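Let us practice reading a record.
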Amino acid sequence: MILLFTWIMQLQQDHTYSFAELTHIDALEIVAGYGEDTRNFRLALHWQVYQREFEHMSMEASWALNYATFDNPNIESRAGQLRDLGATPVVKLTPKRVFKSIEPFMEFGIGAHYLTERDVGAKYFSTNFQFGDHIGIGASIGKRVQYTFSYQFQHFSNGGIGAPNPGINFHMLSMGIKWK
């Protein structure tokens, strides 16, 4: 995660950002998924910080601020629920457009997350701090390719900073809208 963050910061040195650029939300993403008897619902706001065009593809780097809920539908008490606050640098790779209104992409990110509880159902996390990484594939569609749909595989783990470190995996479906 530190290497990804450092790399994005290096890319940004080519450009000085105004306050308006840094506070402008570029995209909103709504994500829902399931894994290991746990549901995950997430809302993410994205700020694009870098974009570069290559011969056969483009690369975009953004920051995503996330708010999520985890919930085990088999447990009705508060022990089956937790909240997640996270910040994730995300890199998106897009091949040159083949179709006018469809743009496939691949994305990945590794971020830092704070969980409000240490357990969700039978799954116990030894720390509230977790790393969250994901990889996804999807497509942007529309006249300005402003609507996004994707599948993401997401993993949470404390990276071995505490034991036990059971981790949890989710299969997620995402939809979003880009304003840029």
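A brief commentary: The CA atoms of residues 65 and 89 lie 9 Å apart.
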